[in-house]
């Protein structure tokens, strides 16, 4: 997993730049091909090197999909005259997918009882369907072909984002995603150390997908009621209080419930963040995937740092001290970056 995360970190921005230069549809097809070969690696090479190969290919697929999929859908909706519905459509779509994944996660133990490879075979069938669908995509014409003097280097794109004050916003949102994904490996272990039944561990991840579904159905309403800075101010206290509460409490079922709500909310509101970036922090529409990848790159940096540092603290001292450390660290990162974020009115068309 560590090698896979390193591959994703190294390829995140280059993959977005590749997508903007050579086409979003082509990149999404390529991402699905990598996904298919990743699953095949897990199925046929059942050893350490097979897992390294599968994890690396999986990370390559994620890197090629992350900003590209959002940019492709934003351009598609723009061409259809429905750009202002991006948050609603994408959040609801992600929520629907999360509901399906909840069922698959909860039923995973039953599939493995039949055959250990059955979940991977089911996954392969989804990958093949996804590849067929990606091939059938129609590329929107609003994405102008980049040629001649229009070509920019990655450094020039970074310079453009500085003009739009993108970095503080990217650090704020990237830190939240990076912290929660980075510490996800410790949740089940922490719950089991408090006496939470192992057989119910899968329900924590599965039910968080249900919350994701519910949040995804209504999160777009926030755009019309609150400014982004008001929304981010709420998130400073919401996510840091989450870590302090986890560290303070000792009731495993209560903590499991908190995990379910917070993780589900975090993923459910992701498309709201993406829509804000697309509407307010992109100067050149030819480089949407690249700029979205910058935010993801920051998240991957935290995902690399958090497991190593917090894993050391939790193994040397205690899980609770580790969660207190996460809460304090995240609070300072969010407060400092928040003070440099400038309020921008989200474009409505």
Helix- and strand-based class?
Answer: mainly alpha
Span between termini: 41 Å
What's the total number of strands? 0
In CATH, the homologous superfamily of the domain at 82-134 and 154-338 goes by the name MFS general substrate transporter like domains
CATH topology of the domain at 82-134 and 154-338: Growth Hormone, Chain: A
- Measured as a percent range, the helix fraction is over 70%
Name given to the CATH architecture of the domain at 82-134 and 154-338: Up-down Bundle
Q: Helix-strand pattern, N to C?
A: HHHHHHHHHHHHHHH
Q: Which spans have pLDDT < 50 for at least 5 consecutive residues?
A: 144-149, 345-349
Please report the number of helical segments. Answer: 15
Which terms would index this structure?
349 residues; disordered C terminus; Growth Hormone, Chain: A; mainly alpha; 15 helices
Descriptive notes:
The protein has about 350 residues and is mainly alpha-helical. The chain has a domain of about 240 residues: Growth Hormone, Chain: A (Up-down Bundle). Helices cover about 80% and strands about 0% of the residues. The protein contains 15 helices and no strands. Helix 1 packs antiparallel against helix 2, helix 1 runs antiparallel to helix 14 and helix 7 crosses helix 14. The longest helix is centred in the first third of the chain and has 32 residues. About 40% of the residues are buried.
How is this structure best summarized?
The protein is built from 15 helices and no strands.
Ordered list of secondary-structure elements with their pairings:
Elements: H1 2-22, H2 24-44, H3 48-79, H4 86-114, H5 118-136, H6 154-163, H7 166-182, H8 184-193, H9 201-218, H10 222-225, H11 228-248, H12 252-268, H13 270-280, H14 288-316, H15 319-338
Helix pairs in contact: 1-2, 1-3, 1-14, 2-3, 2-5, 3-14, 4-9, 4-13, 7-14, 7-15, 9-12, 11-12, 11-15, 14-15
